[in-house]
Model the fold of this input.
Amino acid sequence: MMGSSYMGYYIIIGLISVVSWLVSNQLKRKFAKYSKVHLRNGMSGAEIATKMLADHGIRDVQVISTPGQLTDHYNPTNKTVNLSEVVYNQRNASAAAVAAHEVGHAVQNATAYKYLTMRSKLVPVVQFTSSISQWVIFGGIALMASEAMGVTGKYIAIAGLIMMGFATLFSVITLPVEYDASNRALAWLKNKNIVTPDEYKGSEDALKWAARTYLVAALGAIASLLYFALRIFGGSRD
Done:
């Protein structure tokens, strides 16, 4: 009964998962491809990140190596650009793209980029709500089928929908944050002649595919939110 009732949701999740897998695989292939495009300047990812920070007058951010693959990120709390071991040490178009992109986030933080600020404020809320929102919605919809608890169930389901809304908003706001960081990275790589035209094309293509992973995640979050909104407010029972 429950399985058939939520068949639409399972279909949405299944489709998004397939698309996400395809995009992630393509991203890995792109990074592998451009990892073979060695930089003529011989700079490592760590050196590129350090130079970009210096060129933007940012002196209080440290570039460090972190274990794993595709674990690169900027941490605004302790102001560190965390580069995976491969990106930190290697000297190719992929490493240049990732290193500059993560510094792009540091530049956003230093210039109080509004979408990064908004996303940072949502982090504690999303950490709490994202893990329970679906269960609250499921419970509320189940109670809506009961004559005695129908109204209460709807309010519970709406509360869960609001929780899911925060996670969806977080995913949507992440898009301009990621695209802007890539644009900052590519502009710097080009304007400072850090990479050759061929190396630039590789870095640009790699970052485009990285951004598409966030796009798929945002579309999936929006689709899930709309599905449950229709179930709650549309009165569907099948």
Strands lie at 62-66, 73-75, 80-84.
